[in-house]
Design goal:
4 helices, 4-stranded mixed β-sheet, alpha/beta
Length: 172
């Protein structure tokens, strides 16, 4: 089995009888026989590269293949670098949390939202607290109302076993 080549078809890989040709300066030369296009590329000391190989006829350009591949690789690396991966951070609360503790947790939520991350707010119930789930729901609504100018609720509060979970995400 022959090794697979990376990148667009170039020079002898182009088998179509006719191609739409663009020269090294970017001028559109129109439909050209492939043999003539290869000759023109060879005379210029460059490669004939299929820019759009699936078109009928394929669009080919006379350019330096090594430079073209390098620029494409650089563009892909730049796109990966600019990509933001969204994490889901978690904040755990209890129904009878003290006001100072609540404020500390809300500052953490604001920081996470400011960094562009989603926040999973988990309300944990222990023992007799299960009988007063409305207190936990009120606290989650307070969190929602306090964060409404910087975040939106992505998953409404729902009970999962002994905890109630709500997910908020940045407004973007």
């Amino acid at each position: 089995m022959a090794p697979t080549r990376k990148g667009p078809p170039a020079n002898n890989d182009i088998t179509d009888p006719e191609v739409q040709l663009i020269d090294a300066e970017g001028n559109h030369l129109g439909p050209t026989p492939t043999d003539k296009a290869k000759e023109m590329a060879l005379d210029a000391g460059l490669d004939l590269v299929a820019i759009s190989p699936n078109a009928k006829p394929p669009v080919c350009k006379i350019l330096d293949l090594g430079k073209y591949k390098y620029q494409a690789q650089k563009k892909a690396a730049d796109a990966r670098k600019r990509q933001k991966i969204i994490d889901v951070k978690e904040i755990k609360l209890r129904p009878n949390i003290d006001t100072h503790d609540y404020d500390v947790k809300m500052r953490a939520v604001e920081k996470f939202i400011g960094e562009g991350d989603k926040v999973k707010v988990t309300m944990r119930f222990r023992g007799r607290e299960m009988a007063h789930q409305e207190l936990g729901l009120q606290l989650l609504h307070k969190v929602r109302d306090q964060m409404e100018d910087i975040a939106k609720v992505e998953a409404i509060p729902k009970i999962e076993g002994r905890q109630m979970v709500m997910v908020i995400a940045p407004l973007k």
